[in-house]
């Protein structure tokens, strides 16, 4: 199968076929408009590929997720987050020396310029940490202006390292505690926990359970091919905007409740059900009721029409972490009941709606003591290497061009003023 045939207005056109390394078939329409004057229409881009990419592969029917060919289950079991960041960005697993050097650089670029601390005092204590994160990341371009692709290797390190510091500082700001500076003695994830939970009078004692849970959460969020926020990063980067502006745009796209903002909405939904006597059947019915705008947050996915493999891993981890920490969380029981009921219900089965990555992640963040309004920031910290990898792949693509979709105009025809 080398071509697809299109018959339009009585004329026949042949369109080339591209086949990916996993057998995915794409109809190449790059010549369509010049040949036919017609464009395609695909609101939400559910059927359109915006690029070819070597970074992440998802098979939604089979519940498969691989970073650079490695199955997410094996990565979650064996890797550290910085190892995964290196793999996603540079395409191969780092050797011991390469990883040590990568980690060293991340350690020595964790401070933000002291002047940036003044930005925090301008935000109200109630400012959402995603507003702070996106503003601060865009502002990094004021301190590191050059964004020529070769200089970006250092800017990539700066972003990966300083985003943690900005996120932790935004938490400290929201609870009125002093900022805790990063320590060069700690690993990437330990340093984040330290900046979040240490206070001047008492350094945070690193809990191996928490460190492992954080590592797992960041890894599972690290990339997910052309999702809404990653496509946004590619879109903004395609105009040759600098990396900080591009990633800041991705942070804003992730904030939406239909995307990364869902993890915060899941906990708010589970809390609402708990406070309503734990009556989860009522909320399953509400989610099915077309007249209600209630959705089962954390359920459904544009690509996964089977279990989101990340949700499976997180569900198991939530049990383990709560047990190891000697905690139990009524919200986890409600989540499990919601999942059980929904997966037996025709409405969800027909629409192939399964728990997605956001359904269980909030239970783990809660167990770690991370406040609900920081959940989407945690998603962003995990997704950072994925966004960076796609931005870099797009900018290094010799055939790369500015994203500029067409449209079908349906407004008024010409009329005199
Ligand atoms: C993420 O793209 C990615 O990869 C994203 C992500 C990543 O790693 O980057 O995986 C992370 O964003 C996960 C998704 C988090 N969002 C939520 O959990 C919010 C709740 N889910 C939905 O809003 C919805 O499922 C989406 C947004 C995830 C997907 O939307 P689609 O593909 O446009 O599907 P749709 O809205 O057209 O729904 C299809 C049908 C509709 O019913 P009908 O009109 O056919 O009768 O399913 C229904 C929807 O009403 N439906 C739901 C539902 N999700 C879809 N009904 C109740 N509860 C839900 N959660």
Cα(first) to Cα(last) distance is: 53 Å
Instruction: Please write the string of helix (H) and strand (E) elements.
Output: EEEHEEEHHHHHHHHHHHHHHHHH
SS-based class: mainly alpha
CATH topology description of the largest domain: Citrate Synthase, domain 1
Total number of distinct structural domains: 3
Radius of gyration computed on alpha carbons: 23 Å
What is the number of helical segments per DSSP (H or I, 4+ residues)? Answer: 18
Could you characterize what this model shows?
This protein is mainly α. The termini are far apart. The mean pLDDT is 95. It has 18 helices and six strands. It has a three-stranded antiparallel β-sheet. The protein has helices at 32-36, 72-78, 81-90, 96-107, 117-122, 129-143, 152-174, 188-197, 208-220, 228-237, 243-255, 262-275, 280-288, 309-324, 330-344, 346-350, 357-367, 375-395, and strands at 3-8, 11-19, 25-27, 56-59, 64-67, 70-71. Helix 9 (208-220) runs antiparallel to helix 17 (357-367) and helix 12 (262-275) crosses helix 15 (330-344). The protein folds into three domains: 3-64, Single Sheet (Rubrerythrin, domain 2); 70-258, Orthogonal Bundle (Citrate Synthase, domain 1); 262-367, Cytochrome P450-Terp, domain 2 (Cytochrome p450-Terp, domain 2), CATH 1.10.230.10.
């Amino acid at each position: 199968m080398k071509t697809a045939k299109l018959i339009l207005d009585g004329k026949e056109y042949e369109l080339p076929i591209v086949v990916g390394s996993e057998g995915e078939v794409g109809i190449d329409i790059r010549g369509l408009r010049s040949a036919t004057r017609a464009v395609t229409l695909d609101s939400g881009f559910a059927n359109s590929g915006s690029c070819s990419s070597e970074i992440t592969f998802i098979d939604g029917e089979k519940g498969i997720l691989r970073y650079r060919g490695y199955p997410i289950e094996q990565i979650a079991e064996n890797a550290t987050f910085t190892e995964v960041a290196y793999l996603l960005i540079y395409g191969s697993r780092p050797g011991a020396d390469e990883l040590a050097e990568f980690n060293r650089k991340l350690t020595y670029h964790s401070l933000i310029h002291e002047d940036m601390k003044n930005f925090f005092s301008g935000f109200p204590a109630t400012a959402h940490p995603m507003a702070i994160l996106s503003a601060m990341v865009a502002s990094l371009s004021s301190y590191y202006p050059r964004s020529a692709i070769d200089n970006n290797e250092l800017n990539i390190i700066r972003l990966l390292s300083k985003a943690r510091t900005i996120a932790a500082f935004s938490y400290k700001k929201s609870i009125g505690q002093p900022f805790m500076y990063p320590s060069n003695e700690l690993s990437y994830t330990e340093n984040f926990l330290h900046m979040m939970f240490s206070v001047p009078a008492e350094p945070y004692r690193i809990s191996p359970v928490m460190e492992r849970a954080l590592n797992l959460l960041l890894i599972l969020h690290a990339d997910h091919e052309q999702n809404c926020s990653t496509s946004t990063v590619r879109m903004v980067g395609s105009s040759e905007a600098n990396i900080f502006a591009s990633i800041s745009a991705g942070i804003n796209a992730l904030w939406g409740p239909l995307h990364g903002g869902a993890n915060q909405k899941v906990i708010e939904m589970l809390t609402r059900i708990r406070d309503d006597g734990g009556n989860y059947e009522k909320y399953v019915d509400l989610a099915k009721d077309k007249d209600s705008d209630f959705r089962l947050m954390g359920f459904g996915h544009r690509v996964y029409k089977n279990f989101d493999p990340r949700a499976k891993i997180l569900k198991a981890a939530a049990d383990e972490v709560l047990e190891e920490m000697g905690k139990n969380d009524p919200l986890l029981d409600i989540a499990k009941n919601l999942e059980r009921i929904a997966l037996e219900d025709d409405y969800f089965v027909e629409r192939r709606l399964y728990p997605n990555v956001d359904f269980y992640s909030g239970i783990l963040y809660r167990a770690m003591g991370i406040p609900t309004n920081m959940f989407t920031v945690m998603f962003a910290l995990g997704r950072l290497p994925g966004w960076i990898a796609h931005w870099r792949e797009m900018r290094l693509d010799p055939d790369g061009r500015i994203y500029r979709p067409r449209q079908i105009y349906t407004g008024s025809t010409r009329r005199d003023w």
